[in-house]
Design a protein that fits this description.
By secondary structure, this protein is mostly helical. The chain is 72% helix and 0% strand.
């Protein structure tokens, strides 16, 4: 599974977390209505997707998980909601539970990396993205996010390498191209990378 993304940092993780389920949810919703079901875990996730209130989302995710404690998408969505609410540490409990259910899900590892970034635990974030890239080396989302984490650590040369690799895979990605351009301007403004761990980069 690839960790797809199309917009700014916070939105692209949300898009990843929901896009793969939309069509499936719609079909299940229609089936549930035909069967006369008024509420089931999938219906609750659909309702959660329709509200902008994160407290309401969490209530609906918890209700879905009461009905089905192994509902993978509910754990993922709950974790992401917690992360967006600034409760990234609590989000890891959900992501870890989701990985117990589906240990090969690369998307969950991407979201863990995103949460580590939010906590400014950049080394752990890099580890999460490396886990994905080891299996799927051309995952643009992970390359970009790893670049952001490296940049935050002042490892500009390595960050540029991540952006370059991502652009080799998707040369049309304007967000990554813009990010690389801004970083290059910063490097040139400093004149060198003497304060960076990869100061030999030119």
């Amino acid at each position: 599974m690839s960790c797809h993304w199309k917009s700014e940092d916070s939105d692209m993780a949300e898009e990843y977390a929901i896009e793969k389920m939309d069509k499936e949810k719609q079909k299940e919703s229609e089936a549930a209505e035909k069967n006369g079901e008024t509420e089931n875990p999938r219906q609750l996730l659909i309702k959660a997707g329709e509200t902008d209130n994160y407290e309401d989302k969490l209530r609906l995710y918890d209700k879905a998980l009461t009905l089905d404690p192994l509902y993978l998408d509910a754990w993922i969505q709950k974790g992401f909601a917690l992360d967006r609410m600034g409760k990234s540490k609590e989000a890891f409990t959900c992501y870890d539970k989701a990985l117990e259910i589906d240990s090969e899900n690369l998307g969950i590892r991407c979201l863990k990396g995103f949460a580590f970034n939010n906590l400014k635990e950049f080394e752990k974030s890099i580890e999460s993205y490396d886990e994905v890239l080891e299996i799927k080396p051309e995952d643009v989302f992970s390359l970009y996010q790893k670049g952001l984490a490296l940049e935050s650590l002042g490892r500009y040369g390595e960050a540029i390498q991540c952006y370059d690799k991502a652009l080799e895979i998707d040369p049309t990605d304007h967000l990554i191209r813009e990010k690389k351009s801004r970083l290059l301007k910063l490097i040139y403004k400093k004149g060198n990378l003497a304060d960076s761990p990869d100061s030999g980069f030119n």
